[in-house]
Structure formats: structure tokens, C-alpha cells
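stage 2 :: seqdesign
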């Protein structure tokens, strides 16, 4: 990653895919616990993220659950994602036609311990794998969810070749340990887009 831009309590670091940004937060802590800002519009705008977030979501998942790779068809959403319990490997795949990084992916470990966030612009497929015993995942969206507008691509498509990490406690990645929804088992390959 290249050098980040700091504004207020946030450092914004580009990933090498235009718009896809790692957000590190400054933590204020002592023996009582900690405090941190997770979003402040003027600081995010200074860091190059121009969004009006309109919906917050939260999910809980068990170890080995893989959600994704999802995208919105007619009403794409930018997302700011983070983990408040546990650890996940979060992935975004560039689906923007004409982008020089079309079909490329970037991933980031997000955890309750590292407090890191990942900003995913519109036009990306998104997914995550729960590495810890469980995880609670939170995200802001810049458009509301619309049933029937969700598409997906195979999580293990060789054309994308995501390098999924091993689950915590395992020596190597084991696809037999992945838990998918019935819908996520049926996503088509990237070439079908």
C-alpha cells in the first residue's frame, strides 16, 4: 500500500485499486477501556471519500462462514465496513467496466482488535470470510437495500483467484470448512458478467 492521508482521527490508505481504501482509526484508551470515532464526514471527505451514508447494517456469523461475493445490479452501494467482534478477511472485487483494475481484488483482515475499516466504492463485488470463532460485522451503505437487486459471483472463481487465508487455528486454507448460504453456492462465474 502507498502512504496514507491523515485527517482528524483517521488515516486513509489506498489499496492500489482506485477508490478502495483502508481506514485506520485513532484509539483513545486507558485502564477503563477506549473511545474512537468510526465516522466523521468532514474527515472522510478530506480523505477522498465522498458519500452520504443512508443505511447501517450488522450481521453475526460463525467461524468459517463466507458471505459473498455480492453486488447490486441497478442500485450499487458504496460501503464502509468494520468488525466489532472477532476477525474476518474482507474482500472487494472491481466490477467497474473500463477500470484498469477490472476483475482484480483486494482483501484486508478486519477485527475487533485492529479497529480497521475498509471503504468499498460503488461498482465492486464484496464478501468476507469469518476467521475467528464468530464475528459481528457492521457496515454503512450510501443507498438503501432493494430486494431483487442483488447479484453475485463465485467466491472461489479461478478467474479472480482470491487468496483466502486459513481459519484461525488452521495451518492452511481448507475449502471443505467453508459455510455458504444456498444462494451463495449458486453464484455464476466472473466471466458471465
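stage 2 :: out
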Amino acid at each position: 500500500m502507498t502512504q496514507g492521508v491523515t485527517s482528524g482521527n483517521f488515516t486513509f490508505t489506498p489499496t492500489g485499486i482506485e477508490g478502495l481504501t483502508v481506514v485506520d482509526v485513532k484509539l483513545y484508551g486507558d485502564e477503563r477501556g477506549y473511545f474512537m470515532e468510526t465516522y466523521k464526514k468532514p474527515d472522510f471527505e478530506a480523505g477522498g471519500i465522498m458519500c452520504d451514508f443512508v443505511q447501517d447494517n450488522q450481521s453475526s456469523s460463525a467461524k468459517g462462514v463466507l458471505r459473498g461475493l455480492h453486488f447490486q445490479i441497478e442500485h450499487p452501494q458504496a460501503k464502509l465496513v468494520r468488525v466489532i467482534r472477532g476477525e474476518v478477511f474482507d474482500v472487494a472485487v472491481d466490477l467497474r467496466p473500463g477500470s484498469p483494475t477490472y476483475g482484480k481484488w483486494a482483501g484486508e483482515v478486519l477485527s475487533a482488535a485492529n479497529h480497521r475499516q475498509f471503504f468499498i466504492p460503488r461498482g465492486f463485488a464484496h464478501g468476507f470470510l469469518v476467521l475467528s470463532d464468530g464475528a459481528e460485522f457492521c457496515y454503512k451503505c450510501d443507498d438503501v437495500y432493494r430486494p431483487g437487486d442483488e447479484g453475485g459471483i463465485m467466491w472461489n472463481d479461478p478467474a479472480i483467484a482470491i487468496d483466502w487465508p486459513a481459519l484461525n487455528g488452521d495451518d492452511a486454507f481448507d475449502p471443505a470448512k467453508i459455510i455458504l448460504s444456498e444462494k451463495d453456492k449458486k453464484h455464476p462465474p466472473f466471466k458471465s458478467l
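stage 3 :: structure notes
- The chain has a mean pLDDT of 96.
- DSSP finds two helices and 14 strands in the chain.
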